[in-house]
Amino acid sequence: MAPEQWVERVVKAADGTDPADVPAGAGGADAPSPDQVARGLRATSQGADLIQILSPEGELTQHPDFPVEVTAEMLQGLYRDMVLVRRFDREGNSLQRQGQLSIWVPLLGQEAAQIGAGRAMRAQDFAFPSYREHGVAWCRGVDPTELLGIFRGTDHSGWNPKEKGFHDYTIVIGNQALNAAGYAMGQVFDGKTGDAETGEATICFFGDGATAQGDIHEGMVFATAFDSPVVFYCQNNQWAISEPVEKMARLPLYRRAEGYGMPGFRVDGNDVLACLAVTRWALDECRTGNGPVMIEAFTYRMDAHTTSDDPTRYRLADETEHWKLLDPIERVRVHLVREGLADQAFFDSVQTEADELAHRFRSFAVAMEVPHVDRIFSNVYSAPHAAVAAQQEEFAEYLSGFSEGSAGAHAGGGH
Ligand SMILES: Cc1ncc(C[n+]2csc(CCOP(=O)(O)OP(=O)(O)O)c2C)c(N)n1
Ligand SMILES: [Mg+2]
Fold first, then answer.
1. Contact 240 CB / ligand 1 (< 6 Å)
2. pTM of the predicted protein model
3. Domain ranges of the chain
């Protein structure tokens, strides 16, 4: 079938009309062009299938399929989480600009998507992040200062993944889907699922761009084949560096779930309550043995991809301005104020706490010491290895070629 015919068929079918009943060429003068249809099919708009509980105006409505008990204390907690996470995220950006970090990966705009999912997890669950999940790290009890080693270039990690139920950051796009699928298969083999209270679940975080990677496909195939307890949580922030999601996906990403044989949902990624309710449901499905599940959190990356990126080169400011009106923190604040669930003293105390956290984050960063150059070779294998020893020797020789002083114990820094 020629592409134009296929497109025409889809338009008719979307109308509810049986394509067989439509005479060829009966589109009429108002019929959209093939190009318009292709654009309309793509994954850009929020769509009627978006699950939302707290609107951008701060109005709360329960969703029939994902009821969630909402208390003032809970909303205050989620607000505090998001404000604190945003505050140290902004500090990370500033530290990089001032030469204290090699790079920073901002989460601005994705606070609700991350805090909602992070707070839905139970202690026994395990998360596999990409590199932007500072909000999930926060929920897992990773101190923000523990994130700094990777971005200052002094460490490969900074926390104990096993202790936190939070894996190391993964820079290789999509790779964590394989780790997550494998880990979740292990949970099945070890009989860790089945109990609604004590059962374990895994959650895998990845971006819209990552869905184009083979690793995500393979992870989903294995997870469904082994009925594994893994939630595939895609933060569709609509950009993969400079590549817009509509270039690589014709349909909303969550609809791919059906092809693998698992349920898929599209949640308003700027609505912390919706993210919490849907992820909690999905994790519970997994822990009781009904996994896997896919969630697409539809959100927006409000800052650059990383501090190495300049988004003004490829997207218009009015797009970002539009998304500012959908700010994930503001809608919670508006709701708290309007419903009288928090007073000014509460907001002031969160602000003070945020400033203190930023100060602690900054002080920690600037005081970090450059590790001894030998450290890069020390954790490759648990036992000495001839190849690593040879590389270490070669590197030492290379460094000794520099002038006195620069090849000393602290060479290799340079922020
Ligand atoms: C296998 C692989 N290919 C390419 C890259 C370079 N890269 C880094 S981030 C990125 C875009 C990822 O976009 P998305 O999955 O939407 O996540 P986001 O950064 O938006 O959170 C790419 C292509 C990489 N890190 N790994
Ligand atoms: Mg993206």
1. yes
2. 0.88
3. 1-18+33-44, 72-367, 373-413
Tell me the C-alpha distance between 101 and 113, whole Å.
Answer: 25
Quick check: CB of 412 below 6 Å from ligand 1? no
Can you tell me the distance from the alpha carbon of 255 to that of 263, in angstroms, rounded to the nearest whole number? 9
**23-64 pLDDT, tens per residue?**
444 445 677 777 666 556 555 566 778 999 999 999 999 999
Superfamily classification of domain 72-367:
Thiamin diphosphate (ThDP)-binding fold, Pyr/PP domains (3.40.50.970)
Residue 341 CA, chain-centre distance (Å), reads 29
Using the mean position of ligand 2's atoms as its centre, give its distance from the Cα of residue 195 in Å.
34
Q: Is 76 exposed, middle or buried (0-12, 13-18, 19+ CB in 10 A)?
A: middle
CB contact set of 24 (below 8 Å; sequence gap of 6+): none
**Cβ proximity of 86 and 134 under 8 Å:** no
Q: 72 CB less than 6 Å from ligand 1?
A: no
Write out pLDDT tens, residues 208-259: 999 999 999 999 999 999 999 999 999 999 999 999 998 888 889 999 999 9
372 Cβ contact partners less than 8 Å away, ≥ 6 residues apart: 409, 410
Pairing of strands 264-268, 293-298: parallel
Task: Give, to the nearest 10 degrees, the angle between helix 214-225 and helix 175-189.
Answer: 10
Give 199's DSSP letter.
-
